[in-house]
Amino acid sequence: MESIANLKAFRVADYMSRRLITLSPSMSVNEAIRLLLEHSISGAPVIEGETLLGVFSESDCLKGAIQASYHETGIGSVSEFMTTEVQTIDAGSSVLEAADIFLRDRRRRLPVMENGQLVGQISRRDILRAMDDFARKHTL
């Protein structure tokens, strides 16, 4: 019987999403909300050119709405509310490392980097797919 620890051999690059929905910093929060809803995602990387500037999440949308309501102003742009201290993971990391970050730091998704470039995104659901693949190949 093999241990779930053997998930260490499963790489983030093999389970991440490569087809990213990205946002621009100048996009309005309302436009970003529509994109998140349209694609049924809870957040997306914010990029300019090929540079990762931040991550914009459902929580950031709520911050924008509350602030606009409180100040009775327009909701503003993605750059005003995005998280700029972005936690990322390397494409070569194990899915077990990603799972640890998700649990420890209460993240839902992580941008995936390779050689300093954004190449994908991995989510909790992607980790579950890796666990399911492992379970199908091995007896836990």
What are the defining features of this structure?
single chain, two-stranded antiparallel sheet, CBS-domain, three-stranded mixed β-sheet, 140 residues, alpha+beta
Short account of what is shown:
By secondary structure, this protein is of the alpha+beta class. It is 41% helix and 20% strand.
Give a structural overview:
- The chain is an alpha+beta fold and 140 residues long.
- It has one domain: CBS-domain (Roll).
- 41% of the residues lie in helices and 20% in strands.
- It contains six helices and five strands; from the N terminus they run ααββααβαββα.
- It has helices at 12-15, 29-38, 58-71, 78-81, 95-105, 124-137, and strands spanning 43-48, 51-57, 89-90, 109-114, 117-123.
- The strands form two sheets. A three-stranded mixed β-sheet has the order 3-4-5. It has a two-stranded antiparallel ribbon with strand order 1-2.
- A hairpin with a 2-residue loop joins strand 1 and strand 2 (51-57).
- It is elongated.
- The model has no long low-confidence stretch (mean pLDDT 86).
Number of domains: 1
Under CATH, the homologous superfamily reads: CBS-domain
Label the overall shape.
Answer: elongated
Strand content: 15-25%
What low-confidence regions span 5 or more consecutive residues with pLDDT below 50? Answer: none
Largest sheet: 3 strands, mixed
